[in-house]
Amino acid sequence: MAITAADVNKLRQETGAGMMDCKKALTEADGDFEKAKEILRKQGQKIADKRADNTTAEGIVLAHVSPDGTSGKVIALACETEPVSKVADFQNLAMAVMSTAVSTDAADKAALLATPQADGRSLQDHITDLMGKIGEKIDVASYEIVSADKVVSYIHSNGKLGVLVALNNTNGTDVTEVGKDIAMQIAAMKPIALDKDGVDATVVEREIEIGKEQARQEGKPEAMLERIAMGKLNKFYKDNTLLNQEFVKDSSVTIAQLLEKTSKGLTVSAFKRVAIG
Q1: What are the transmembrane regions (predicted)?
Q2: In terms of domains, do 81 and 135 share one?
Q3: Whether residues 44 and 21 fall in one domain
Q4: Which of 135, 187, 203, 230 is the one with CA 20 to 30 A from 218?
């Protein structure tokens, strides 16, 4: 049957796919709109399969904190190229991902991607559809949740880095400002854990071995290597664990001391740092 411009435009409006893709799908489906939609969806899946191993180093990070300030979510929607990260369809999809996370309180990434949208299809189906339209890999690279007495969020100016900070024992103190300062500290200094107890044992073992080898290369006696390595490990904790880091705005205090100065007993119970690229 003849495919009219009106038919093509109707399918485009319903699917968001390009004009030529819509025309090809309608032609292949002999004008059947539902079959044409299925053809477009399969096209998206083909692109998803073909580009599954591609690197997604661009995209957008969004954060949301609940109205009462006690829970927060951060998502990273990633793509392959910067131009795609700027288009309206991609940014609208990122907002849809966050809206779904907030409205459903999805427990993890798998649950989030499986959530039905208004048309009954999953969020992952909608992501796959956009891959078919745009022609490159799109992925929810990260989805993180925290909850506490007070949650503070920070999005870096490039839109590709976000932080959530969970503060407990606030005791009625307004900790928004210090929370922002700590979030920016996390963004800049990339701590790997809250304190030394949160550092993975394999990382500790690696740092001890590195410390020993460095001391050995410097000609230190074998009997002293363990003590020297432990000193280097303590320096590693100071540089790489949040509560032990020097505050970037005032190096005379650590983050733990800053929290105590702000309100007695105030602590960071968790943080999430999400970055693309």
Answers
A1: none
A2: yes
A3: yes
A4: 203
Structure tokens at 115: 């959530």
| Structural contact between residues 80 and 55, judged by C-beta atoms closer than 8 angstroms | yes
Q: What CATH number should be reported for the domain holding residue 10? A: 1.10.8.10
Tell me the one-letter amino acid at 112.
L
Containing structural domain, residue 43 = 5-50
Residue 240 domain-assigned (yes or no):
no
Residue 198 tokens read as 């949160």
Give the pTM.
Answer: 0.81
Q: Which of 29-37's residues contact partners 24+ apart within 8 Å by CB, and which partners? A: 30/1, 31/1, 31/3, 31/7, 33/7, 36/11, 37/11
Contact of 106 with 112, CB cutoff 8 Å: yes
Q: What is the pLDDT of residues 182-238, one digit of tens each?
A: 999 999 999 999 999 999 999 999 999 999 999 999 999 999 999 999 999 999 999
